[in-house]
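Lab notebook, bench 4. We co-purified these components, and the gel suggests they stay together. Before we commit to crystallization screens, I want a quick structural picture of the whole thing.
Request: model the full complex, all chains together.
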Amino acid sequence: MKLEFSKIYPITDTSLSTLSLPEQVAEMAAGGAVLIQLREKHASARQFFDSARKALHVAQANGVRLIINDRSDIAMALNADGVHLGQHDLSPVHARRLLGEQAIIGYSTHSLSQAMEAVKLPIDYLAFGPIFPTSTKEDPDPVVGLKVLADVKEIAGTLPLIAIGGIDETNLAAVLAAGADSAAMIRTILADRDGIEQKMRSLLSIAAGHQVGNV
Amino acid sequence: MKLEFSKIYPITDTSLSTLSLPEQVAEMAAGGAVLIQLREKHASARQFFDSARKALHVAQANGVRLIINDRSDIAMALNADGVHLGQHDLSPVHARRLLGEQAIIGYSTHSLSQAMEAVKLPIDYLAFGPIFPTSTKEDPDPVVGLKVLADVKEIAGTLPLIAIGGIDETNLAAVLAAGADSAAMIRTILADRDGIEQKMRSLLSIAAGHQVGNV
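Here is the predicted assembly.
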């Protein structure tokens, strides 16, 4: 499956917003998101399941696809659209066997060598980062920068490449110009005082500007 | 499925032993265990998967069944014998849908009301505790004691009842006498200086003594 991405890939986080997961998804969808990753690092599995179920209802009502971070069992139990896996999660090979061919499986990589391994795996998109310094992850991998992002684009070929880590309106155009098909963001979207929906619109507008070449 | 239990239900823990999960399983099996729960609270999902895979090989070579703590996705990916779920994990209803009828699903409860809810769920055994004070869990539920254990036995009926929490050779017979079909132990088995295998044998011998009434 060739996955179509919007230029902005928003990720939820309840530690960066007072809104619940379903509320975050509703705002992201209203702002134009088409694919959202549901991430909740501090809740129990049951709490995550319960809020993910509500978030999935919101997503489906808005025609948005929802990806569950880490937990293939929760994704399966909810019949969510897929999972996003990190280097320390269940491997994409095993997740694919569990979730089937129709599921979207994304995979985080943090170096050229990880990206080269990743393209052999049964994944639908490759995430790469952190492109810039980020405070969202507690123990981030080393910053990779735009030059290596461009190298990873070569490796990824037609596999969608999602850049992540420290991306905001000031560097979004450069990230897309370097070869990213989409830019994943957490803090930039959730922590904006004008609200998530407005921020999504603003970012999509900047990204569209890049597309028509006027950056 | 009516599940047959040995009187002792050992649970692994790498923070209480220098042995790896496969090594712990090997020793437990050598000491007479027939069903083992694999618990690893501090490893990543991928690390847990990797050591659980090795542990499952050891278990199968010894005719022992292996239950995975918490993660239904890991249990499915390994084709393990089942999962053990807590109150904060994915619910037994959803785990059953994922794992199928043949899987063993165990469920932890910590009060009479939780036990009354649990017997309505699609589970194969009911765990109840902590019976006595325990230092194995970081944030244990209140101690329930032997009297409430006996009340839960009434609630459980023919569903196997596993007592857990602070059980050792000094109180094992009392726990079984109160109605537990089996006693789950972590620290008592793993932290014994004579080794896991010897401790398993010793505990099974005490439990057998209870069975023939000479305690």
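The domain at 8-213 of chain A is CATH 3.20.20.70 (TIM Barrel). Worth comparing against the SEC data before the next meeting. Residues 79 and 196 of chain A are 26 Å apart (CA to CA).
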